[in-house]
Amino acid sequence: MEGSRPQARRQVNLADEKSRIMKAAGGGFEQCNNAQAVVAFGSKRVVAQDVVQEANDKRQAEPMVKALCALPELLGKPETLLADNGYFSEANRAFRKNRARHRPASALERRTERRNGQSRIIHSGKTSVPMTALTESRAARYMRGKATLAGLLLAALTVAASDAEARRTGGIRRQAIDLVVIHSTGGPTCDARTGKPIWVAAGTLEENMRQIEADPKLGIHYMIDRDGILRASVPEDQVAHHVFRVSGRSIAIELINEGDGLDPFPEAQLASLVNLLRDIRQRRGIPRDGIRRHSDLDHALLPCDRTQRRKADPGAAFPYESILDRVFQPR
């Protein structure tokens, strides 16, 4: 039938069928996606993100604020959110008023204003900063000294459609989360130069975060330092490749430790882990047997020494049953 034929001007992107033709900032139109990101000043880490199919940024403020509110409380509470004129709308003003009626004063409160042609989306702080022509240096000066999640910048970025790029940055989860896997940063491996087995030292939190986040294949969701400092990396709703076969349904927690069974785990680190696990358990409904050690799930041997396990972390010094008892009721 004539009516069933595709229209002559209809276009389909075979590499990324979910992308859309959108108006580009520099003029004209491009086949692309609209990426939203919330960045924490201080750590400069992306703490919330999404990729959408519509070009209108105004409709993205509400879901991004909700994504922030869903983050673990251990990461801190946002106090100030900066955004440019592209996010200002009466709908966002109404959203702010509705949340103010239903949330306690200590939680995220939004105040959206428009004055002298400038829009602001400012939260909780007494000082308001005009959002017109906001530069990174200016925003950084304003947010200097704030805690990890205290100051946030909401920004939009047009991302060209690319199937290869989507694979490189990791995909959205397609399995329900039912596992949490505990790792340690130290452990056995094969020396690339000599081909002999070696033990990788625990390293520092900064070193490990830098190395893991620079790796195009590997990833984690959280890392906890010896002093209990918690750092987030890949968002929970994205897959971080950290364990054989079950990365798609698990959350990765890395502990700074040698993983050799001799290096003790400080109480500050364990207390931070317990608090994080309790939070994940409450949000995700993880059962006791859903919290596993890396060595419980990967039984392969080192290719350079078939007498050694490839993964031994977090090691015999990790008080596994004690941690589970603190997270759950003792058996």
Q: How much of the sequence is in beta strands? A: 25-35%
Tally the helices: what do you get?
8
Identify the CATH class of the largest domain: Alpha Beta
Along the chain, the helix and strand elements come as EEEHEHEEHEHEEEHEEEHEHEEH
**What is the 3D shape?**
globular
Uncertain segments are 100-148, 158-169
Largest sheet: 5 strands, mixed
Task: Tell me what the CATH architecture of the largest domain is.
Answer: 3-Layer(aba) Sandwich
Global structural class: alpha/beta
* Residues in helices, as a percent range: 10-25%
Average of per-residue pLDDT values:
74
CATH topology of the largest domain: Lysozyme-like
Which properties best describe this structure?
single chain; 331 residues; alpha/beta; Lysozyme-like; 2 domains; 5-stranded mixed β-sheet; 8 helices; 23% helix
Q: Can you give a write-up of this model?
A:
- The chain has 331 residues and is α/β, with parallel strands linked by helices.
- It has two domains: 151 residues, no CATH class; 157 residues, Peptidoglycan recognition protein-like (Lysozyme-like), CATH 3.40.80.
- The chain contains eight helices and 16 strands.
- The strands form five sheets. Strands 1, 2, 3, 4 and 7 form a five-stranded mixed sheet that branches. Strands 12-11-13-8-14 form a five-stranded mixed sheet.
- About 18% of the residues have low confidence.
